[in-house]
Amino acid sequence: MIDIFVINIPSSIERKENIARQLTKLGLAFHIFEAVNGHKDKSPLFDLYDEKKSQLYRGKTLSKGQLGCYASHYLLWQKCIELGKPIIVLEDDALIYENEFQNLINNVQALSQHFECIRLFDNKRPSFKHNLEKKLTHTEIHKFNRGHMSATGYFLTPEGAKKFLEHSQSWYLAVDIYMDRFWVNGVDVYGTYPACLTNDPKFESDIGYGSKPKRSLYCRIKREVFNLIELVRRYNHNALYKIRSKRKS
Question: Which residue in 13, 179, 26 sits closest to 4, CA to CA?
Answer without folding.
Answer: 26
